[in-house]
Amino acid sequence: MYHLECIECGQKYTDSEVVYTCKCGGLLDVIYDYSAIQLDMERLRTEAPSVWKYKALLPVEGKPVSIHEGGTPLYRCDRLAEKIGIKELYVKHEGLNPSGSFKDRGMTVGVTKAMELGMKTLACASTGNTSASLSTYGAKAGLPVIVLLPEGKVALGKVAQALIHGAKVLSIRGNFDEAVVLVRQLCDEEKIYLLNSINPYRLEGQKTIGYEICDQLGFNVPDRVIVPVGNAGNTAAIYKGFRELRELGVTESVPKMTGIQTEGACPVTKAFKKGVEEIIPEKNPETIATAIRIGNPVNAKKALRAIYGSGGYSEAVSDEELIEAQKDLAQLEGIGVEPASATSVAGLKKLIDSGVIDRDETVVCITTGHLLKDPEEVINISTKPITVDANIEAVRKAVFSR
Ligand SMILES: Cc1ncc(COP(=O)(O)O)c(C=O)c1O
Ligand SMILES: N[C@@H](CCOP(=O)(O)O)C(=O)O
């Protein structure tokens, strides 16, 4: 039993309505009757993690459109922890989902819901990963997909994914925030199902990151979870996952939700530093982390409530700081991530150095997308290959040269 509810005015909507925001303009949440949910703790403790392991806490009845999403590894990262100067650090690598990002958790639920609602076409605006994921799940469901991308600002791997899975790809002469406005109008006027994170059902899939972190820590809660923030849905979704486990009596606390942006695109961090819930949209966001090159995040209010409500924090890092973190993850832990993902680790380092985060805290950093999403950025920041003649002397000389 569940319904949609406005986070501003409390207006309720039924599960059969196609609605993304309240009449008052407020964001919607999926609300359950928790007293009616029976969790089989024996099964939870023994079954391997995956999104659909938690079906009792998801808003769909039918057979899921699924290609095995979730169940991503939670790595204990002692070498990285030593470099940063913290006792216990974990990285939850969401880049190991089927299409290479956390969006798959949301899409498996959102596309299943689209089928239940009888929607015939799916759409999104995207900085890349949402489009890659929606194209993948649309293909699995047999539904056509339309994606609106900011021209020239989407990493190559992501464009390739949307193309090969058969989406209709529109390259918009404008930025992501402008593409969002267009796709919302298109979906409203043409009865196309919108699968950006403004859709509350999509965020229900993403909340399973919170469930899984607890699950993988033996149903214990870390002190802090650090999340890269772009359109700001994931921070809110993960927090909801932790809150629900507490509500159901599975755990007793929630982690301090900590959202990291880049200095060139940080409306959420700026609002946090002022102590307010309203962001001031940024007209020209700019960062090497194209996935989070977003100036007017639609879920900003939900994310800020998660941060304030959990006693968390928000910080912005420079492109240089996130590149260093991207290299550290790759070279100290063997974890390959795209630039936006590395902001969580860069933010951790910055907040340890400034004394905001205690060195004794147990911290989980979320890495949101796979390294191979953005090969061009990796080539640009890395030492170039050495070209040598095809003889052993030349090879030996190159191997032993400094
Ligand atoms: C790789 C990656 N990391 C982080 C984010 C930010 O997530 P959210 O929009 O939920 O804040 C996105 C997309 O926005 C992304 O593609
Ligand atoms: N990084 C995102 C931006 C759109 O976010 P969404 O969660 O609202 O779909 C992307 O990959 O497109």
From TrEMBL:
Residues 66-369 form the Tryptophan synthase beta chain-like PALP domain. Its EC number is 4.2.3.1. Its cofactor is pyridoxal 5'-phosphate. Pfam families: PALP. Belongs to the threonine synthase family. NCBIfam families: PRK08197.1, thrC. This is Threonine synthase. The lineage of its organism: Archaea, Methanobacteriati, Methanobacteriota, Stenosarchaea group, Methanomicrobia. The gene is thrC.
